[in-house]
Amino acid sequence: MLIATAVSTVATVGSTVYEGRQAEKQAEKSLESQQQAEKKATSQAVSSKIESQIESNKTNQKQADISSAIASMADLGIGGTDLGGKKLRDSQTARTTLLGE
Fold it and tell me: What is the mean pLDDT of residues 50-66?
């Protein structure tokens, strides 16, 4: 009877150790799978962000950049009261109208 109990105990312990090792292997596989999924999700997020920026840049190229145009005009001395390419001084503007008066 004592031998049967000892054999039974050894078998139970062996089974428990085996099941514990199998659970450990499964946990390692799950962790590896999760890490791969996180890498893939991060990669897709970066890719989506880059694509979004490219589309935004395409859209912005189709719209006039008024602030740059105004800055360029100011650099060239164009702006203010500009009539037909002739820049008028403020004192002339006060006295001159489109009818020449």
Answer: 78
Q: How far is CA 49 from CA 37, 60, 63, 101, in A?
A: 18, 16, 21, 60
Q: Is 100 left (phi over 0), alpha (psi -120 to 50) or beta?
A: left
Q: Where are the alpha helices (DSSP H) in the chain?
A: 2-62, 66-75, 90-95
- Nearest-angstrom CA–CA distance, 53 and 51: 5
| 63-80 tens-digit pLDDT | 666 777 777 766 666 655
pTM comes to 0.42
